[in-house]
Write a structure and sequence with these properties.
The chain contains five helices and seven strands. The chain is an alpha+beta fold. The chain has one domain. The strands form three sheets. It has a three-stranded antiparallel beta sheet. A two-stranded antiparallel ribbon has the order 4-5. The protein is globular and about 60 Å long. It starts with a helix and ends in a 26-residue tail after the last helix.
Amino acid sequence: MLDAKEFKKMPYSTTDVSWQRTKGEIDGLLYDHGIDKIQWTQEGDQVRLVFAMNVEVMGFEKLIAFKFEPVRVFTYRGLKGRKTKTEMKNVAWRLFWWHLKSKLEAVKYGLSSVEVELMSNIIHKLPDGSDSTIGETMQHLIAEDRLNGLALEDKRDSKSVEVDARVVQ
């Protein structure tokens, strides 16, 4: 929750661009970056964007899905000593547009890779069959203090190969 002073410092705090127009601009932004597999869903007040794109990872091209949920921005506005909580939907959507645009352009202009910029938003299957993002999974692992228990191996520098073989006579 932002107070009035913090809210005024925030980018796009005075935007007059509607959230609907910004949503259309996000669709255009995705298309401009070659992304044409796009899905918007809404549950109550929560909006979710899922898109898929082909990404080259360690020499292999993979179709990877990404999930984003625009944040909701609230501020308190006062009238005659009373303060009411007000959602600033247009502001939230402009911030989301800027966030996504920055990440996609960092990849486009070679400042970063898709994996680095969008890693936490990659959708994957959990053992129970449900979907999650890498970021959500990592948050749970960190909260449960299970991150140290992950067996991580850097296969790029591996000099040996394990083979499961049997001798046939």
